[in-house]
Automatic annotation (TrEMBL):
NADP recorded as keyword: no
Similarity-based family: Belongs to the calycin superfamily. Lipocalin family.
Positions of the Lipocalin/cytosolic fatty-acid binding domain: 34-183
BP GO terms, sorted: lipid metabolic process; response to reactive oxygen species
GO cellular component: cytoplasm
Record protein name field: Lipocalin/cytosolic fatty-acid binding domain-containing protein
InterPro entries on file: Calycin, Lipocalin_ApoD, Lipocln_cytosolic_FA-bd_dom
Gene Ontology molecular functions: lipid binding
Domain of life: Eukaryota
Keyword Signal found: yes
Record Gene3D superfamilies: 2.40.128.20
Length: 193
């Protein structure tokens, strides 16, 4: 029995010493306000680990709607919406709840998406109110970091130079330690309700 206990402790220690880098804490967007972030954002593209893609696997027409909770004004609801595989595929919606220890928030939140067991660090690191934003989220579970960098726009398209500059910023903040590929989101022929 003692051998099983010792092996269990060693395995547990290995999990917590896994070589994954910890989540980053990038600076929040300058002059962030929830009012500026509220509304519809279209995903231009993302850098995303496998675990971070549990909702978005095979999604197109991805967009988010951000608004204040009607039940609790201290919470913000983010509805992640996409279609499975094609523009007319099955609609998938995952609602997340953002909470912040700071009131008003500076763009750093904890996001809870049911049934996920742990809240995810959700950071708005760039916000140009009427044009584009960058959201970085990350969680470490069992020593494995899962993260996403989302480039968002108020329209389904975004100038390529802006996209490249935002990717350089993500690299500067070391938000992609696994050096994953940026994947563009297909927004062709999409309808949004």
């Amino acid at each position: 029995m003692r051998v099983i206990y010792l092996v269990s402790l060693l395995l547990l220690e290995e999990v917590y010493m896994w070589p994954d880098a910890p989540c980053r804490t990038p600076p929040p967007a300058a002059n962030y306000t929830l009012e500026q972030y509220t509304g519809r954002w279209f995903e231009i593209g993302k850098i995303q680990t496998t675990g971070g893609a549990f909702f978005e696997k095979d999604c197109v027409c991805t967009h988010i709607d951000v608004g204040q909770s009607r039940k609790d004004p201290s919470e913000t609801i983010v509805s992640n919406i996409c279609n499975k595989k094609t523009f007319d595929g099955k609609r998938i919606i995952a609602n997340g709840t953002l909470t912040s220890n700071r009131q008003p928030s500076d763009g750093r939140y904890n996001e809870t998406i049911f049934p996920a067991p742990l809240p995810v660090a959700y950071n708005i690191i760039v916000l140009q109110t009427n044009d584009f934003s960058v959201e970085y989220d990350c969680v470490v579970e069992f020593g494995i970091a899962n993260y996403c960098v989302h480039i968002l726009s108020r329209r389904p398209t975004l100038n390529e130079t802006i996209v490249e500059n935002l990717l350089k910023l993500a690299e500067q903040y070391d938000l992609n330690p696994k050096k994953l590929k940026f994947t563009r989101t297909n927004q062709t022929n999409c309808t949004y309700t």
